[in-house]
Amino acid sequence: MLAYFGLANAQLEQAAVSGTVWNGVTTSAEGRIFVNFPRIEGDKGIRIGEVLKNGKIIPYPDSEWNKWKPGADAAHKFVRTNSLRIGPDGLLWVVDTGTPSMGQNPLPGNALKLISINIKTNTVQQIIPLSGIAKPSTFIDDLRISGNTIYLTDAGEPALIVLDKATGKGRRVLENHPSTTDHLPIQAEGRIMKDEKGNEVRIHADQLEISPDGKWLYFQPASGPLWRVETKYLNDGNTSEEQLASRVELFYKTPSTGGTAIDADGNIYLSDVNKSEIIRISPEGKESLVIKDKKLLWADALWIDDNGYLWIPAGQLNRLAGFQGGKSKVKFPVVIYKMKINAKPQRN
């Protein structure tokens, strides 16, 4: 039986609601809330939004970035955003997969990209095209930043990507390695997820976190397990694939995972989408239960704010039509919850 972690009276608080499925949330030190809509229900318009104090969600950084239509130029518009987070540099970073819809390949040109936004001026600061490090079925899933280095996961063509933030140049590493390849079926709400053709859903390199001291990169396919490798080997372009592979360690046998976060003490918080719970894994590899609640339907990318709250977007992704025989079972509104865990965020 799992040990319990956290306060006895800790409970979920409703932070925001939406009529469109979301999969990510991030907050600024000033309390601004930004959310990601991954364009998996057809074209509902908004990709990145800011949740105002009255609950209204507006396009961010403006409506023009959120107005891409098939056939239009995609270099300065969001095609299909999949993740967002405020980085240690204070900028809002967004991953645009460049894929028009779920299961499709990135569009040619600069549709596949990273975008950084200055939230003080609400303007785009940098666009980093990623087509140069992409493969035909690349699906850039998420990012983490340490200093001048950006780490990315490719969930479509199994690999990690190590990118120089200043130059935009990147390298693919651990391609098709067991640590980046999904070998297990993803389970959610007690069922193996299958696509419209009846195939088991496989999401390769997905979640990733950096230890507070910057020494380790933790990463995993969506169905686990969690691996780690020292960043000094990842960052050294002279490290051969064989040498790098030999440095990869199995860290923990995690369950089917929606999202993760790491605190300043190196504890990793992870959502088990099969059991609707959040677990915490210590730096020593010990697991404890944070919360179990049936409302946590596909808890996705987690976030720890500056006030010690864990933010949990419950997007119900497994209930979408594409995974339910063509008929959506999502019950709206979808909700972002938060709960007090009294942990400090890892912002390095």
Automatic annotation (TrEMBL):
UniProt GO cellular component terms: extracellular region
First-listed, main subcellular location of the protein, grouped into a coarse class: secreted
Subcellular location: Secreted
Keyword Secreted among record annotations: yes
The keyword Cytoplasm is annotated on this UniProt entry: no
Protein name listed in UniProt: Gluconolactonase
Key words of the record: Secreted
Domain of life: Bacteria
PANTHER family: PROTEIN YELLOW-LIKE PROTEIN, PROTEIN YELLOW-RELATED
